[in-house]
Specification:
Blueprint lengths: L1 H12 L21 E2 L5 H5 L5 E2 L2 E2 L2 H12 L4 E11 L8 E9 L5 E12 L2 E13 L2 E7 L5 E6 L11 H9 L5 E8 L2 E8 L10 E10 L5 E10 L6 E10 L10 H7 L8 E5 L1
Antiparallel strand pairs: 1-10, 2-3, 4-5, 4-14, 5-6, 6-7, 7-8, 8-9, 9-15, 10-11, 11-12, 12-13, 13-14
């Protein structure tokens, strides 16, 4: 799973994939709009999230650690979307990739994406409409190959944190690590958050970055509820537009049901082998 996670993260965060198969976007959800409040008081500035100062995020590692600790083992729903449009000097196509993750606990979750890069038999493979489900009976996969053939796979249950995959933490560490920014106090659903905005990224890519903005809603304990990033990449006449966003909801209240395709394929049986493959 580690190499699978690294390959997929490189595709989305570093925009290294050249195309997408099986685009089937989920229904869009609406995040509660933050309510603007007066400038932060001295007391509020004294309780800034870990890694955050009045100038924005100055220690991204501390913020990532705080975010992970604040989320802990709580159930949650997480979704993101990465969109790349425009001329790509490296020859890649437009890209539109989403991920959806519903976590009930450490062993029960559902994950879906319209594009997945995995390693199998020593080779990199690109899969479309990839769905993963896990519970104490096993881990179950359904996906499409490039020839549009639907395949199924299951394996024994594990407790290696497969559901997390580290995407949110990687995005926080990459996109919110800025040289300067601003902080304002706001409220979402009556709860205090800090709106942190940055415009000078520190990550390095092969092409120049223009018009960069990253805005996050961060709770005082470091939980990053949402992150929205936009920028342009390249040189005049060859600019790409990049947009990325993630958001959480259902923290502490998310439940996960066994998908109908799992029951139809395997019933209520438990995986007893390391892995087995099947196709439609």
């Amino acid at each position: 799973m580690d190499r699978m996670a690294v390959a997929l993260l490189a595709c989305v965060v570093l925009a290294g994939c050249s195309g997408v198969t099986g685009v089937d976007r989920p229904d869009e959800t609406v995040t509660p709009a933050p309510v603007a409040t007066p400038p932060p008081t001295p007391a509020e500035m004294e309780t800034l999230p870990p890694g955050v100062t009045g100038n924005g995020v100055e220690n991204a590692d501390a913020l990532v650690a705080a975010h992970r600790a604040a989320l802990g083992n709580q159930s949650h729903t997480w979704r993101d979307r990465y969109v790349r449009n425009g001329s790509n000097p490296d020859g890649g196509d437009d890209l539109d990739v989403y991920h959806r993750l519903r976590v009930e606990n450490g062993t029960t979750y559902r994950y879906a994406t319209n594009h997945r890069t995995i390693w199998r038999d020593g080779r990199q493979r690109h899969l479309g409409n990839y769905t993963e489900y896990a519970d104490p009976s096993g881990e179950y996969l359904r996906y499409e190959r490039l020839d549009s053939e639907t395949q199924f796979r299951r394996s024994r249950p594990t407790t290696n944190g497969s559901a997390d995959k580290g995407r949110a933490a990687s995005a926080i560490g990459r996109f919110l690590d800025v040289q300067s920014g601003s902080v304002a106090v706001t409220r979402v659903d009556g709860e205090r958050y800090y709106r942190v905005r940055g415009e000078t990224p520190t990550f390095v890519v092969a092409q120049p970055i223009h018009n960069y903005t990253a805005t996050a809603l961060i709770r005082p304990d470091g939980f990053v509820r949402s992150l929205a990033v936009s920028y342009q990449l390249g040189r005049p006449g060859q600019l790409q537009s990049i947009r990325y966003r993630f958001e959480y909801d259902g923290v502490g209240t998310t439940t996960v049901d066994r998908p109908s395709w799992v029951s139809a394929r395997w019933g209520d049986s438990t995986a007893t082998t390391t892995s087995d493959d099947d196709q439609a």
